Amino acid sequence: MIKDSDIISLSQFNKESLLNGKKGIEREMLRLDKENSISQDSHKKYLGSALCNNYITTDFSEAQLEIVTMPYHEIGSLFTFLKDAHHFITHSISDEKLWPFSMPPDFSNEDNIPIAHYGTSNLALFKETYRNGLSKRYGKAMQAISGLHFNYSLSDEIWKYNLLETKDFDKKKNKEVVYFRAIRNISRMNWLILYLFGASPIFSKSFLSKPHDSDKYYSYMDSLYLPYATSLRMSDLGYQNFSQSNIKVSLNSLDSYIYDLYRATNVDDTNFNFQPKSSNYFQQLNTNQLQIEDEFYAVSRPKNSVVSDARITSKLKMFGVDYVELRSVDIDPFSSIGIEQSTAKFLEAFVMFCAFSPSPLLNNNDIEAIRKNDLLVAREGRKPDLELINNNQGIKLKTWAIQILESMELFFDVFDIDTKIYKERVENPENTISAKFLSSIMSSNMDLNEFAIDISNENKESFLRIKKEENKKWNMLEKEVIDSKAKQAKLEKNESIKFYQFLENYFNS
Fold first, then answer.
1. How many other CB atoms are found less than 10 A from the CB of residue 346?
2. CA gap 381, 429 in Å, rounded
3. How far is it, in rounded angstroms, from Cα 330 to Cα 211?
C-alpha cells in the first residue's frame, strides 16, 4: 500500500507503459513589431479567433501569443506540431516577429501593453475582465512575462494497476495520490529546473515599476541583470511575487488543495477593493484574494482534461486529476520554437521520477524552504558553493543536484537521456542556458532589444524558407482559423443571459 514515504515499485511496468504518457506544451511569447503590439482585428484576420482557436490564442496581452499543442504520446510528434505551428504563424503575421525571450521587450510605460480582447460574448468578457483584474492587482509588466507550460499525463497502462493495493480498486483515487506525489516532489526540486533551464538572467530597465530598485542589479546598456541569476522570471521580480505570499494552498491531497483554492477565491481582500468605473465596466471579476483559481501562481498544478464551463475546483472534485502542468520553464532563446526536444525529454523523466519517488507530506517549514530555494536559485543559482535547504539542513546545490540526477538514472535509461550533459551543467555553471545567454548578450555589443530582434529575424527567416507544402499541419491550422471565427460569431449571436448572470452561474458551478 502506498504511503507518503514509500516509493512505488516500477517492476510491474514495462518500458512501453512508461513511455506512452500524453504530453503537451503551451508556449506564451510576445510578438514584436514597431509598437510591440498587434490589434485584435489583425489577430482575427491572420490567426482566427483568439477565443475559439484551439491551437493559437493570446495570453494576458493582445501582443502575447500563446501556442497550444495537442497532447501526444511521443515527443517527436509533439515537436513536429510545435514547429509546424511556428511555421504557420510566421507565414501568417506579415512583417511581425516572435519575441524570443521570457522577459518582455522595452516599453515606455505599461499603457503600451494592451490587454487581450476576445469579442463581445460573456465568455470573452469574462476573460478580458479577469485580465483587467490582473493588471490592477499586479501590474501589466509582470503579466507580460512569458514562459512554457509542460503538461504531462502518465500512460493509461499504469492506471490498470491497483497502485494503492486497496480492496476496492479506485482509478480516480490512484491518479490523485500519484499525481499529488509528483506535484509535491516537483515543488521540492523545482530549483533544479530553474538551474538547468532558466533563461532569464537579464531584463529591460523599463520592466521595473520602481526605478529605485535598480540599485539591486547590475547595469548593461538598457538592461539590468544579476551575474549568477538563472530565472528572474521565477524570482520575486516575477512569479514569486510577494503579493500572494499570504495565500496557502496545500499540496498534500486533492481535498485539501480544492478546499484551500476554493477558499482563496471566496475570501474578500481589502487590497483589491477597487470599484468599477461604471455599471457597464468591470475592473475585475471580484474583490477576493484570487479572482479565479487560475490566478494562483504555482510551479505545478493538477489539471483535469474534461471540457466544461465549470470552475477548476469543481472539475477536479467531480472528475479528479488527469495530468500535471509544470509551469516554471523559461523560453529558450537558443531555440527557434522556445524549447529543445532534449529539454522536453528531461522534463518527462523528471515528472516520472517525481511521481514514483518518496514524497512526504509538506508542512509550513517545508513550504518556506521550497520558496527560499527557488528564490535563491532564480537570483543566484550559479554562484559558487551556493547552499540550499534540504530536510532543515544546509546542502550545497552541486551536491544535491548530483544526488537527484543519479537517482534519476533509471528514468534516464527509459527515455534514452545522456546524464553527462546535465551533470556537466551542474559541475560547470558556465554551461547552463542562463550563463550562455548572458555571455552571448555581453559579447554582442548590442542592447537587449537589438539582440532579441536579431534572433527574431533569424528565426523568422528560417521559417520563411520552409515551403507551405512541407507543413503537414498547414491545412488543419488554416481550417482552425476559419472555424474559430465561425465559433466566435455563433457564440456572440446566441448569447442569452446578462454578464452578471454568467458570472453567478460560473461561480456556482
1. 23
2. 9
3. 25
Residues 62/37, Cβ–Cβ less than 8 Å: yes
The amino acid occupying position 307 is V
Whole-angstrom distance, CA of residue 143 vs CA of residue 319:
30
Torsion (CA) 209, 441, 114, 375 in degrees, nearest 10 = -50
For 187-220, what is each residue's pLDDT tens digit?
999 999 999 999 999 999 988 877 767 888 999 9
Longest dimension (CA), the chain: 67
Cβ neighbours of residue 71 closer than 8 Å, sequence gap 6 or more: 22, 23, 24, 151, 153
pLDDT beyond 70 at 248: yes
9: Cα separation from own chain's centroid: 30
Which CA distances in Å does 426 have to 254, 353, 383, 412, 430? 34, 19, 11, 16, 9
What is the C-alpha to C-alpha distance for residues 405 and 388, in angstroms, rounded to an integer?
A: 16
Angle at 228 between CA 348 and CA 456, to 5 degrees: 65
Confidence of residue 21 (pLDDT cuts 50, 70, 90): confident
User: Across all residues in the chain, what is the average pLDDT?
Assistant: 90
Cell numbers placing 79 = 515537436
Give the H or E element holding residue 396: strand 393-396
- State the Cα–Cα distance between residues 21 and 75, nearest whole angstrom: 10
Q: Tell me which residue of 298, 337, 306 sits closest to 98, measured CA to CA.
A: 337
DSSP-assigned states of every residue in 44-110: HHHH--TTT-SSEEE-SBTTEEEEEPPPBSSHHHHHHHHHHHHHHHHHHSTT-EE--SSSPPP-SSG
State the pLDDT at residue 209.
72
Residue type, 295: E
Domains of the chain: 15-507 (3.30.590.20)
pLDDT for residue 40 is more than 60:
no
* Of the candidates 253, 353, 19, 326, the residue with the CA atom closest to the CA atom of residue 158: 19
The SS3 call for residue 464 is helix
Query: What global pTM score does this model have?
Result: 0.93
Q: Quick one: average pLDDT of 447-476?
A: 96
Three cell numbers, residue 70: 495537442
Q: Residue 164 pLDDT more than 70?
A: no
Which residues share a beta bridge with 223? 204, 220
- Determine the Cα–Cα distance for residues 419 and 239; give it in Å rounded to an integer: 29
Residue 178's contacts (CB-CB under 8 Å, 6 or more residues apart) are 8, 154, 158, 163, 355, 356
